[in-house]
Write a structure and sequence with these properties.
Shape: globular
Distance between the termini: 40 Å
Strand content: 15-25%
Radius of gyration: 21 Å
Helix content: 25-40%
Number of helices: 8
Number of strands: 8
Oligomer: single chain
Largest sheet: 8 strands, mixed
Structural class: alpha/beta
Length: 285
């Protein structure tokens, strides 16, 4: 009887501790408003999302956080991809969602016949935003790996991501696009690519953007053709759409041998602090 009571108390304590840890290690979202003085004090707002236990380990200089840069689509806000943000953050990434477009920006105009139908100015602006955000975040989150980025982007943001990988291949490890339409995929095999394609008659992919099946198989590009609409590839989509994308992203990362195990996280040569020391390092604790 006493043994049974002891087991019950132990299980109850474990359940209580599990709930405590689940809340403690929840994903932490922080909005950071930056200003680029070299571009007329242009506002570059980012949302940084990190799993709380990984954030504490990085603050204690135990690990380097892998970094995801997320770029939104045209007319969609940077905060409208929470399902993807949480998917990557839950696996131990620091996710940086950048607001590229401002209300004061000139509207995007399609110019058929020009390179990327005249979108080059938006792509260059997005790349400047990414590089600027990285330099600023190095001061706030110094123990993150900014040299092997994972780029995630929807529509125009997917084109920004692919164009960044084209111009800065040494900084990019993976690219995940959701129906980018203009910039051709990088096909050197050095950058791992996962791309979701919509089935939307209003959003047609330009010729030459998605490689043929033979090229994809040869260089390891994964193309996922869906029945979804273009704008459903964001928080605006149904739970079914988001669950499908989340599952495919997990499979993609699993195939690359990446998970959130501490054994697979880049570690720094610092002694491990105690849990209490980690908790004390987090603001608000």
């Amino acid at each position: 009887m006493k043994r049974g009571i002891a087991v019950f108390v132990s299980v109850a304590a474990l359940v209580g501790f599990t709930y405590f840890v689940a809340g403690k290690w929840a994903i932490h979202h922080t909005t950071v408003a930056l200003s680029d003085i070299l571009r007329g004090d242009r506002n570059v707002t980012v949302e940084v999302s990190i799993r709380r236990d990984r954030e504490m380990e990085a603050m204690a200089e135990m690990i380097e956080l892998p970094v995801v840069i997320l770029s939104h689509g045209n007319t969609v806000k940077h905060t409208e991809y929470s399902f993807l943000t949480n998917t990557f953050a839950a696996r131990g990434y620091m996710v940086v969602s950048i607001q590229h477009d401002l209300d004061t920006d000139d509207p995007m105009v399609t110019k058929v016949g020009e390179e990327y139908v005249g979108r080059r100015i938006q792509y260059n602006r997005g790349i400047f935003n990414i590089l600027f955000a990285i330099e600023q975040l190095k001061q706030l989150y110094p123990n993150a790996d900014y040299k092997h980025l994972t780029l995630v982007g929807h529509s125009n943001g997917g084109d920004i991501s692919m164009y960044f990988a084209k111009l800065h291949p040494d900084m990019v490890k993976k690219v995940v696009t959701l129906d980018n339409l203009r910039v051709p995929f990088v096909t050197d095999g050095k950058v791992k690519i996962l791309s979701f394609r919509s089935k939307d008659p209003q959003f047609k992919t330009d010729p030459g953007v998605v490689p043929d099946d033979e090229t994809c198989a040869r260089v390891g590009i994964q193309v996922v053709k869906t029945e979804f609409q273009h704008n459903e590839l964001s928080d605006r989509g149904s739970d079914r759409v988001k669950s499908f994308i989340e599952g495919a992203v997990h499979d993609f990362l699993n195939d690359l041998g990446e998970d959130d195990s501490p054994l697979n996280m880049p570690r720094l040569s610092k002694p491990h602090p105690t849990i209490d020391q980690l908790a004390a390092a987090v603001p608000g604790n």
